[in-house]
Structure prediction request, 733 residues.
Amino acid sequence: MDIDSSTLHARLKEFFGFDSFKGDQEQIITELVSGHNAFVLMPTGGGKSLCYQLPALVMEGTAIVISPLISLMKNQVDAIRGFVSGNDGIAHFLNSSLPKSQINEVHSDLLSGVTKLLYVAPESLTKAENIALLKEIRISFYAIDEAHCISEWGHDFRPEYRRIRAIIDDIGPAPIIALTATATPKVQNDIQKNLGMMDAKVFRSSFNRPNLYYEIKEKTDAKRDIIKFIKQHPGKSGIIYCLSRKKVEELAGLLNVNGIKALPYHAGLDARTRAENQDKFLMEEVDVVVATIAFGMGIDKPDVRYVIHYDIPKSIEGYYQETGRAGRDGKEGICITYYSYKDIVKLEKFMQGKPVAEQEIGRQLLMETVAYAESSQCRRKLLLNYFGEDYAPDNCGACDNCLHPKKQFDGKEDMRLVIELVLSLPEHFKIEHLANILAGETNALIKSYRHDEIELFGAGKDHPFKFWCAVMHQGLILHLLDKEIESYGLINVTEKGMEFYEHPYSLMLKEDREFAEGDDDDEDVQAIAAAAKGGGGDPVLLAMLKDLRKDMSRKLRLQPWIIFSDVSLEDMTILYPVTYDELKNCQGVGDGKARKFGKEFISLISKYVSENDIVRPDDFVVKSVVNKSANKVYIIQSVDRKLPLEDIADAKGLDMDELLEEIEAIVYSGTRLDIDYYIEQNVDDDVVEDIYDYFRNDAESDSLEDALKELGPDYDETEVRLVRIKFLCEVAN
Prediction:
């Protein structure tokens, strides 16, 4: 079809109101209207939709847009109808949510040639009656949006997407345009191969979003941190992603209780509620949507100012796409992710039961996310490298690692040792396996290959496992090493790596960040929060409180942390509590603990506030959700009735881990629970005595991780948690 450039520019102005195209848009559209296939790799906010909307409006026939989400279809159909006034039939969507009358209307508009764009879900495309209908109309082209869903290596694989090519062949040939915001070279190849469009011209835009700021934070008291952050950005729109529906509901409820307008969004809500919540967010009736990854794909809201991941995503592609929803207008976009290795362990558990190949892919994608989270390299450089793009500057100035860089070291000899190891092995292995060899750490896999017997085993034992992982990840960024994606991430040496090995030169590297359980890695957050409140983080008061705690611990013969943890004392230096009720607003201080140990602390703080003319903050107290447990009351009553914990868990649809989390939350809030009846039946007396003795005499905190490390492998995690609950109830509360 012969449509010249001036016609395209005229239609661009007429339908969309733009004077010029952005990036590759004009070349992509020209390729499509000329009857050729096109593959479009364009980051979120780059203008992908226009690449098929404009050609659909100027070409003869109807464009079939295959899209995975009903919300996306509705959003885009409304947008097209807005561009072309007075003709609602110009765009339709066809899916299972439509009533019979609307389906008839869609059929009528299609057959009469009124409709230029038909959005259809891949599931609807497989239905015989829809295939029969589409055979009767003239199709201008097929657009496959969110094309990464085709690849099992993509972050949102959908098996029905792999049937699209066969259905297109059945309906009748027409040009194909495949579009995605996130695809590694491997995923791109997979998409083109599956769609039979290896001949397609590839349009690849830069993945760099210079207006986005990236930060990874320690997941310690993330909820409180999130509330602080949102209150420091009043009236701004944001999205918070959680992995589970339960967490979405819980966090949305918590935000509302704390005066933040928020709504939940997940697949467990009925379609009407989801649509209403989405519309309220788009219409700015609420500031925040708390959502699972079901939300956001194709949502065109340009002024989302922050995207927060309460849980780390399952893949870098997912992370990139979700963070990409911030700052689509080119203005401020803050991307904060909370990271704890415990979340990674949970995600690995979710994979169990899936086919082995799928588990392997899932684990590899997950390990890429871990490497990204723990790295001290420029986050922008890491992200772009993952998508096959180099980022030249050493410091992007807009990520946590660049703003607070770690010291560098000359890693020339370390990198040579890595390359020597890779070259010495007859087969290729993953980063984790190679790092274990160099660090001299044995496991079943090392022993099965007898790699604990080779010359280089332990050659780098002066450094830990994580150090060697960091060196290899930087080797990938520098193109000295390469990763065989097809073979689940096996490492080999590149030509550039061989040159370096033979003629080494100085190589400045950085060690990865350490994410220790329970530490607040980000002092800046405390400083910002303190400044926002006009006081807090008082080092003089903190020293006085620690001295008081030390005196009390001697008198009461208790470990200091049992009285109040460091986190509790730090909160006291921010909130300056002078009543029992105010003291309970500090982290880790329940009613029981406040009454038992609080008198002297309140007295000291009152005197200090008075003598130093401190203006106490009253604008930031995190309120909890009152009904946080319908579960809470049931659990307390059931424990009082001495029901087995397994029965309590079953009754509330919880697993044992989740029940223990609920019980721990109840106990930390100051309520005493007597679970002796359960412990006596399920844990040996000697074991109880050892664990109890550890917390009473040796523990420096209530950290479960430290306890398991100190007590050793003979003690089960559940046993330790149960006895810790007993100890907290009897002594600390």
Remarks:
- Confidence is low (pLDDT under 50) at residues 516-536.
- The two ends are 78 Å apart (CA to CA).
- The longest helix spans residues 591-611.
- The domain at 408-510 is CATH 1.10.10.10 (Arc Repressor Mutant, subunit A).
